[in-house]
Amino acid sequence: MKREHSFVQPVPDPPRPTKKVKAETPLSSPFPSFDHPTAQESREVIRLLHSEFPETQAYRNDRAAEKYQASPCGGVTDVVEALVETILSQNTSARNSTAAKRNLDAVFGRNNFAAIAQAPCSQVVDAIRTGGLANKKAATIQKLLNSIQAKHGSYSLQHLTGEGYSDEEVMEELVSYEGVGPKTASCVLMFCLERESFPVDTHVFRLSKLLGWVPAKANRVSAQAHLDVRIPGELKYGLHVLMIAHGRRCSGCKNRSRGACSLKTYRMGMRGEDIGGDVHGRPNSESQGPSAGDR
């Protein structure tokens, strides 16, 4: 009689963590006990910034009456074009990224994604050089286009414009492509698809810390997840564009400056504290109050 041997099934190695953060539109904040911003605080800040920058269009355009203009941050109706625009807008000015997009259109034709994907990378680099980081952005754009074509059989993501896709499903699809992070995907949701999303760039992140709207330990990804839950949907578009306008133009809230800043004044008035000029969660030596990130 043969003796039966028992074998212990080998335990598989755990999957290696990916470098890319999987970021879906959150249903709850990563900081559930952190209760800022409130809806009232969001409304107060948007009113304050709108009075400060009345020329900033804090509402969506009527696209039916618009003519095409290359613009940063996904302000078009084609999803792939919006992704390309947003990639070009990274780490540069709106003027430079717009110039890069216009030149890309001039060289390859607007939305001729097949030509862009199949061209020598050096040709794409030359076309977008004015936008900065051209080598990296060209490679990212070509890899994105080829991935979309391989997955869907065409250079199109217009299926995401349908009502059958939730915000979570759209976000999951967008961030599945290499080079598309949570902020880029959120920009496409808000500007291109006109959904209620709240992208957090460097300006929005810095000002959110100044206002005490995110914990000190938050990074840009977790801050976006938190703010996307806390800020009322109808205020997200206006608050985003107004915070960027303030972040670009106000020198009083940058680099430990103790100059005038409407948001610092608001913060001191609402919380009764002197945050000085440090927007990074560290009190100045003159200030005895808690830092913006400690609340």
From TrEMBL:
Residues 273-283 have a biased composition (Basic and acidic residues). Signal peptide: none annotated. SUPFAM superfamilies: DNA-glycosylase. It holds the Pfam family HhH-GPD. One of its GO terms (biological process) is base-excision repair, AP site formation. SMART domains: ENDO3c. PANTHER family: HYPOTHETICAL BASE EXCISION DNA REPAIR PROTEIN (EUROFUNG) (PTHR47203:SF1), PTHR47203. This is DNA glycosylase.
